[in-house]
């Protein structure tokens, strides 16, 4: 198992930016994919962005593509999410995630294509209009 701890998040006005970070510990040698999900009140948890540990392929939900950027530092075992041009509908608890089942055919943006087995505790992002 991999333990994940998020940092960052907070309150920002629409159009602003935030950066989330996630540090992995434990069996970090076993990491092959990390990324982010989010859950808004009354809604199901949804995929936001993911990155393979090697060679660093990135994947995004359609709703955040061209606004969010996911990156990783394999030496520090961290993954980050740079969020620009934030919108009120981005308000949610953001969870760092790692490993688990990855569909070899369907991109992670499709429900069920990535089912992580490690999760962080979540960090709140609130975007005011």
Walk me through this protein's architecture.
The radius of gyration is 14 Å and the shape is globular. Strands 2, 4, 5, 6, 9, 12 and 13 form a seven-stranded mixed sheet that branches. It is mainly β and 129 residues long. It has strands spanning 2-7, 10-13, 18-26, 33-39, 46-52, 58-60, 68-73, 78-83, 92-98, 101-102, 114-115, 118-119, 123-128. The protein is built from no helices and 13 strands. The chain is 0% helix and 52% strand. The termini are far apart.
Summarize the biggest pleated sheet: 7 strands, mixed
DSSP E strands, number: 13
Count of DSSP H/I helices: 0
Distance between the termini: 39 Å
Q: What Rg, in angstroms, do the CA atoms define?
A: 14 Å
Backbone structural class = mainly beta
Mean pLDDT across residues = 95
Residue ranges: pLDDT <50 for 5 or more in a row? none
What are the key terms here?
4-stranded antiparallel β-sheet; 7-stranded mixed β-sheet; mainly beta; 129 residues
Q: What's a concise summary of this model?
A:
The chain contains no helices and 13 strands. It is mostly beta strands and 129 residues long. It is globular, with a radius of gyration of 14 Å.
What's the layout of helices and strands?
Layout: E1 2-7, E2 10-13, E3 18-26, E4 33-39, E5 46-52, E6 58-60, E7 68-73, E8 78-83, E9 92-98, E10 101-102, E11 114-115, E12 118-119, E13 123-128
Parallel strand pairs: 2-13
Antiparallel strand pairs: 1-3, 3-8, 4-5, 4-9, 5-6, 7-8, 9-12, 9-13, 10-11
